[in-house]
Amino acid sequence: MEYRSSRITSKYLRSRKIPSTACSGCGLGMNHKIVVQAVDELGLEVADIVWGTSIGCAGRQTFATWKGDGFAGTHGRAYAIARGLRIALPPEKKIILTVGDGDAFGIGLMHLIHAARSNADMTVIVNDNLGYQSTGGQYGWTTPQGSHTDSSPYGMFEHNLMSEGMDVLEILKGAGATFLARHVAMDGARAVETVKRGILNRGFSLIHMPYPCPTNFGSRELGSRNQVNIYRWIEEQAAPLGQEKENTVWATGIWHDASNSRPEFHEMVHDTVEKIRRTGTL
Amino acid sequence: MKRFLETGNFAITEGAILAGCRFFSGYPITPATELAEAMSLRLPQVGGFYLQAEDECAAMHMCIGASLGGMKAMTATSGPGFILYADPYGWALGCETPLVVLNSGRVGPVSGITGAPGQGEFYLMRYPTQGGNFETICLAPSTAQECMAMTVEAFYLSERFRMPVSVLADQLITDGFEDISVPENDDEMKEMGLRVWPRKVCQGPEFYPYTDELDIPPVVLGHNTGGICSDWTPTVEGYDIEEVEAHHKHAYRLIYKVRNNRHLFNHLYEKKFMDDDPDLVVVSYGTPSRVVNTAVIKAREKGLKVGSLRLINLWPFPDEHFTRKTKYLSVELNWDGELVREVQRATPKDSEVHFLGTCGDLPTTPDLIEAFENLLKNEPLSRKGWVLEEW
Q1: Residues of chain B with C-beta less than 8 angstroms from the C-beta of A63
Q2: Which residue out of A48, A54, A77 would a mutagenesis test of the B interface target, given it has the greatest number of B Cβ atoms within 10 Å?
Q3: Does the structure's ipTM exceed the value 0.95?
Q4: Which residues constitute the domain of residue B132?
Q5: Considering CB atoms only, which of B45, B69, B230 is closest to A89?
Q6: Is B234 an 8 Å CB contact of chain A?
Q7: Could you tell me the CATH number of the domain that includes residue B185?
Q8: Which residues of A touch B71 (CB under 8 A)?
Q9: Which of A142, A215, A249, B109 is the 20 to 30 A CA-CA neighbour of B93?
């Protein structure tokens, strides 16, 4: 089938990597498009952004899709790399990271918390396919309670970071993140507006974006790889913040906005070092 | 030239600054803590950045980030922290990111004894990460002054080879106070044999050429070169590829850029009384070498034909020093014998290779001389110290 690229695809993405090698029906492309659309609507150019990714479905499928400079860190380490990079890059360069849920909320959670603590200017898009899908479909730290996966054949029964009364965004808020939001992949234009605000925050922004995985999660939990099933299943359990229903797992929208309220990491560190260099003291 | 009575950690800090390092990230650990402290004091004075990390893994990853952003960066730790470098070390090797890593050896395994010197990471410096398919470069100074020089040299090599280069010291060198001369200008640096290579930027589009060539500038992000780097096997442009032929070519570069350009660092060794084909060659590196050198001088005074070979360039292992069939004695700060295995491998078949280990403390000169005498008389080495029945 011939692939015809849209204007924003040819402007921002590499033809070698788009379309990606993601499974048929994967929702990652929807999230990816939301982010690139937000970049475009902000009028940013390819040279304005360094794009980082991680491993797993979300990391590998988005790695090197960005036309400009980019990197992929190993499991969970992209935030630490990005913090070093944040110091070395000029402040006007944006850093966008597209990572997965296992990467951000599992193996990399400590680095993520410290990136939030330091309020390093970066926008982290956590593409959550509800578990470890590239390794075959094991439960993750935001997999809904009771879900059947390859490593929870009786249903996921442990507490996790999305259990009732708990929320991974709460942890990040406590750690000092200045912009936090959640959207599901089907949120479209609403999500684009949120991502734009995240990018505009000069500080640490994170947008948690659950998306459908028909191949592993859908087939195990819903018993079929029919894409419509998993899309519906996620949509039914998502509702805008303030309009939650009894079965709502993902309340969507801007969850915490303290944009530009706290000194940004690069700025603070550079200003401090400059003062010490000039005066020998603080 | 300025002179100081200071620690090895101080010397390393000054060496890093001379080499152009402006980014340090580390995690407090004895006996490398004072280096982090010295960096936190000195780097801001020269417009550089010190960032304390949440763990060693993050520390080295932040250094990777800074290096990717175009800065010369360094991290330092001791054995228990060095194992947390396994993850970023592999990344930096694969992406060919210049970095300098210092390991100040203490007594292990695990936390062991924090405030005593050990040499248990000889092989860890060769294999600091998983997967194989790479060579590493490791330099081992034996004095504070040499710590400074080898730090400068490590930065020089890391830029030219575009890879992480490690410096292996130990607790006695990094914590001990010594007379240190710090050059104040380029002429003085040259006079001391210190060389510096500037950071350059790879313009692409071939970011990972499959050659053993030196001096290909590293990938630096933020210059809109389209530079990309990842943990996967790269194509020449940097795209991830799952293909064995591409992997073979990538591995060829990682291995042979080092093996084929050893002339840049294989002059880093010290030989004492090695010109008259000694009957016993004592091999060592780091602080024990200082006792070995004294013992060899004294042994010569007693008429024993003993020579000392002190390795500075530890990895890739300098096989060329071991072509002669004679007796060898490896003196190390560990009980299990690490350097000795490599000496056994490198020496001609049927060479006699012996091992004398201590750990946490240096061997004494009389002990060494006794060992030399025994070996030259073809008598077995008697063990000193905590002689266990079944040792």
Answers
A1: 228, 230, 232, 240
A2: A77
A3: yes
A4: 2-191
A5: B69
A6: no
A7: 3.40.50.970
A8: 87-88
A9: B109
- Verify that B161 and B28 share a domain, yes or no: yes
B232 within domain boundaries = no
* B230: in domain: no
Q: Domain count of chain B?
A: 2
Question: Does B49 sit within 8 Å of A81, measured CB to CB?
Answer: no
Contacts of A53 in chain B (CB under 8 A): 230
CB contact under 8 A, A74 and B57: no
Find the CB nearest B45 among A63, A77, A277.
A277
CB contact under 8 A, A63 and B73: no
Is B96 within a domain?
yes
CATH class of A23-279: alpha beta
Q: How far is CA A49 from CA A25, A178, A239, B341, in A?
A: 28, 20, 31, 50
Confirm or reject contact between A16 and chain B (CB < 8 A): yes
Over the stretch B281-311, which tens digit does the pLDDT of each residue have?
999 999 999 999 999 999 999 999 999 999 9
Question: pLDDT (tens digit, 0 to 9) for every residue of chain B, 391 residues total?
Answer: 999 999 999 999 999 999 999 999 999 999 999 999 999 999 999 999 999 999 999 999 999 999 999 999 999 999 999 999 999 999 999 999 999 999 999 999 999 999 899 999 999 999 999 999 999 999 999 999 999 999 999 999 999 999 999 999 999 999 999 999 999 999 999 999 999 999 999 999 999 999 999 999 999 999 999 999 999 999 999 999 999 999 999 999 999 999 999 999 999 999 999 999 999 999 999 999 999 999 999 999 999 999 999 999 999 999 999 999 999 999 999 999 999 999 999 999 989 999 999 999 999 999 999 999 999 999 988 665 554 444 4
Which residues 197-226 on chain A approach chain B with CB closer than 8 angstroms?
A: none
B276 and B177 within one domain: no
Q: Are residues B171 and B42 in the same domain?
A: yes
